[in-house]
């Protein structure tokens, strides 16, 4: 019996070797199955990753826990603007003093827009998404909200943000600002923000803006002269790494470091969000791990 068993094992091993060799020769041997890929450990308190082509979930870490979103909120601001009917991206918006006053009072990140200048909607999108200008975000909210005062229009716009969130199925999300500077009730989750990103990336304008590393706007001054603004550089340092296409960074004293990201390489597309990373470096490391893991899961 022992001899027969050994013989069977030898024959079986040989058969496996032959089969494997044949598969290698014909190219039929594929990468390890998805379940064999080890999920990464990330330092961010919340994380989510999906196959952006199919919407399939690839990774979760406290994916439905509500957290501060910081400037990732501006993705929704852009989404609402780009969803306006009959939108003309070349429409000029005059920068109001209220915008400057807001930036000063909040100590907010700025695209350094100048009161009285006329700036196009397209330029405001770049100013909001690249250097994370809260002044550009407010100018857009004022433009596309309804009401007789700046405060009323901004409030109206934030209402549109929440309506859009509801329509997208972002069940654990609420906005109380157009830029992520919370007034006490501005929150979302990694899963919800990734849903938002997937929707926003269907806009060719949005995709073009968020993958741009640098942009120089030419605005019109009060006197009608052309002003060449200082170049706006994208705060997303991962752009271009391993197929990274954007989307938006965020940071704040309480929110810490956040990032909504999308990447495509060799026909494999992933998208996700990390919230509340302890440092910019850890945020970058977390996202790199998730992107590589996503590619490995899909392949």
Describe this entry's structure for a reader:
This protein has 299 residues and is α+β, with helices and mostly antiparallel strands. 40% of the residues lie in helices and 19% in strands. The chain has helices spanning 2-26, 74-82, 97-106, 121-129, 134-144, 150-167, 190-200, 204-210, 280-298; strands at 46-51, 57-61, 92-94, 118-120, 214-215, 218-220, 226-228, 232-233, 244-252, 256-265, 268-277. Helix 2 packs parallel to helix 5 (134-144), helix 2 (74-82) crosses helix 6 and helix 3 packs across helix 5. The longest helix is centred in the N-terminal third of the chain and has 25 residues, at 2-26.
Topology of this structure?
Elements: H1 2-26, E1 46-51, E2 57-61, H2 74-82, E3 92-94, H3 97-106, E4 118-120, H4 121-129, H5 134-144, H6 150-167, H7 190-200, H8 204-210, E5 214-215, E6 218-220, E7 226-228, E8 232-233, E9 244-252, E10 256-265, E11 268-277, H9 280-298
Antiparallel strand pairs: 1-2, 1-11, 3-4, 5-8, 6-7, 9-10, 10-11
List keywords for this structure.
single chain; 299 residues; alpha+beta; five-stranded antiparallel sheet; two-stranded antiparallel ribbon; 9 helices; globular; disordered N terminus
Rg computed from alpha carbons, rounded to a whole number of angstroms: 24 Å
What is the tally of beta strands? 11
Main beta sheet: 5 strands, antiparallel
- Helix coverage percent of residues? 25-40%
Instruction: Output the strand order for the largest sheet.
Output: 2-1-11-10-9
State the shape.
Answer: globular
The total count of helices amounts to 9
The quaternary structure here is single chain
- The CA-CA distance between the termini, in Å, is 44 Å
Strand content: 15-25%
Query: What pattern of helices and strands is seen along the backbone?
Result: HEEHEHEHHHHHEEEEEEEH
Mean pLDDT across residues: 90
> What structural category arises from helix and sheet content?
alpha+beta
Residue windows where pLDDT falls under 50 for at least 5 positions: 1-32
